[in-house]
């Protein structure tokens, strides 16, 4: 009599067979992946053969050269060794060309290559598909729609709003220095720039600086920046399915929810205000709309409004871009001035002659502080808020020296390396504001704190105005000096930060 297939003995007979099939399929998949890895690596080796780099491991790439938050320092060694560009291997099947030459950058930024979505897509759960991540016609449509939000008539009244936020920060510093003369700048400045962007771009007066503890949004942004940096450099974390179940993936999800909660609150408050038809019509009749009003009143080319998803993506993008980059810029500029007291004093004298006690600062004042502007630009050269950006080549490219790359290669535009390249700037580590004197000459793409080309920073003028106001009012109230026991260690995250904060001694004037 035959044994029934449903009996235990029948099942025991089937299991080894199923195991063998699963093992065979796994082996086939492994061989396919190995073949794909080998073919991809061989293609990359051939594609970048004209751009040498230090020796790399066939599997781990240059991982061991970029350890312990010394990424910027290691990259600068390569800038000295390879003045135009060099290849950096992330792992065996991923490499990109690291570019730090102005002629190379001019060629790349003069094209319309898309963002390298391999890494930028990892920001999508946080900031969505907004202006930073969009490509092609949709990016152009959104850029054209939002450009009026940065018209000078819109930016003029922002000067006083910014000054109000800065004064709140300075008053907090006055209280703090009665207890201890040193202040860690970055968190305070981040709260101030968040307060400013919410007032200016979103008509939201939440007073982020009033809370004594860390603002949840600021905390979320710091966490997301670190998690993004960690994920980009981990080959196993590139797959969303795997990353979602890791401890870092769960932390990333929680931080995204915190950030979205903040932006949703801003959007919903403005939407509620516009529910009144009279208020909506009044806003539509305004000659110039602020950033959020433009988004809420926008009509796409097909006549439709922005979807809730697109609306939140643009708000998330600009909420982050509009506060974190300027916070980085202002903090490092103040540190640079603290390190160079003679230049600091010259700026202070210029500002005192212009503003007196600083009780009022206006749009017209911002163009009347040339020396302070030179120092701000030199601070941005030494400490660019966004250390690097990347593109993926949509077609082959040939550089001025004749070397070329095929379509599909990722290029990293190393802004920090460019600004410290001795081939471009003499004595690049020296703080010298006269590099930006009115009669000075420099390559059109030697100084790119706000990127360049058609995808340059849409909020460049807004950011420069905020930096001028913050620096001017700070120097009127305090004398700045470095804390020799806590020298900042610059690190490359989404923006330029410091592993140990940016600590200064403040002396009230």
TrEMBL record:
Lineage top rank: taxon: Eukaryota
Residues passing through the membrane, by range: 12-32
Location of this chain's protein in the cell: Endoplasmic reticulum membrane
InterPro entries in the record: Cyt_P450, Cyt_P450_CS, Cyt_P450_E_grp-I, Cyt_P450_sf, Cytochrome_P450_Monoox
Gene3D superfamilies associated with the record: Cytochrome P450
Record keywords, A-Z: Endoplasmic reticulum, Heme, Iron, Membrane, Metal-binding, Monooxygenase, Oxidoreductase, Transmembrane, Transmembrane helix
Stated family: Belongs to the cytochrome P450 family.
Stated name of the protein: Cytochrome P450 4A6-like
Organism the protein comes from: Echinops telfairi
Source species taxonomy: Eukaryota, Metazoa, Chordata, Craniata, Vertebrata
């Amino acid at each position: 009599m035959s044994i029934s297939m449903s009996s235990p003995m029948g099942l025991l007979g089937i299991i080894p067979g199923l195991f063998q099939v699963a093992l065979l399929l796994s082996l086939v998949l492994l061989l396919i992946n190995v073949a794909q890895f080998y073919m991809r690596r061989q293609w990359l080796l051939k594609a970048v053969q004209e751009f040498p780099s230090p020796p790399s491991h066939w599997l781990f790439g240059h991982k061991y050269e970029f350890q312990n938050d010394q990424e910027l320092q290691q990259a600068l060694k390569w800038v000295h060794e390879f003045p135009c560009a060099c290849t950096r291997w992330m792992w065996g099947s991923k490499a990109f060309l690291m570019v730090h030459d102005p002629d190379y950058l001019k060629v790349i930024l003069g094209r319309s290559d898309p963002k390298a979505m391999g890494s930028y897509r990892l920001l999508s759960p946080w900031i969505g598909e907004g202006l930073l991540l969009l490509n092609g016609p949709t990016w152009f449509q959104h850029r054209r729609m939002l450009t009026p939000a940065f018209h000078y008539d819109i930016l003029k009244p922002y000067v006083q709003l910014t000054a109000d936020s800065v004064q709140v920060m300075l008053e907090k510093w006055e209280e703090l220095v009665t207890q201890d003369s040193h202040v860690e700048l970055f968190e305070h400045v981040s709260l101030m720039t968040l307060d400013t962007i919410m007032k200016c771009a979103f008509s939201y007066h939440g007073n982020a600086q009033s809370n004594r503890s860390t603002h949840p949004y600021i905390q979320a942004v710091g966490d997301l920046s670190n998690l993004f940096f960690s994920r980009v450099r981990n080959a196993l974390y590139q797959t969303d399915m795997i990353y979602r179940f890791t401890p870092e993936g769960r932390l990333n999800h929680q931080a995204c929810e915190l950030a979205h909660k903040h932006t949703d609150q801003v959007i919903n408050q403005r939407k509620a205000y516009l529910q009144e038809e009279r208020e909506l019509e009044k806003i539509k009749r305004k000659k110039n709309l602020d950033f959020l009003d433009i988004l809420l009143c926008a009509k796409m080319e097909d006549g439709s409004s922005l979807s809730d998803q697109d609306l939140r993506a643009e708000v998330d993008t600009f909420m982050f871009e509009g506060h974190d980059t300027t916070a980085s810029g202002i903090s490092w500029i103040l540190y640079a001035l603290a390190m160079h007291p003679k230049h600091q004093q010259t700026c202070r004298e210029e500002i005192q002659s212009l503003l007196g006690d600083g009780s009022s600062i206006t749009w017209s004042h911002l163009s009347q502080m040339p020396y302070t502007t030179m120092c701000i630009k030199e601070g941005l050269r030494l400490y660019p808020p966004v250390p690097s950006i990347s593109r993926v080549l949509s077609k082959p490219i040939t550089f001025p020296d004749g070397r070329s790359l095929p379509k599909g290669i990722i290029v990293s535009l190393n802004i920090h390396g460019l600004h410290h390249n001795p081939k471009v700037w003499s004595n690049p580590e020296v703080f010298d504001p006269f590099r930006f004197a009115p009669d000075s000459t420099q390559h059109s793409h030697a100084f790119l704190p706000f990127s360049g080309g058609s995808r340059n920073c849409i909020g460049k003028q807004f950011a420069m105005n905020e930096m001028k106001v913050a620096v001017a009012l700070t120097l009127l109230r305090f004398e700045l000096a470095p804390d020799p026991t806590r020298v900042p260690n610059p690190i490359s995250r989404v923006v330029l930060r410091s592993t140990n904060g940016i600590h200064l001694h403040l002396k009230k004037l």
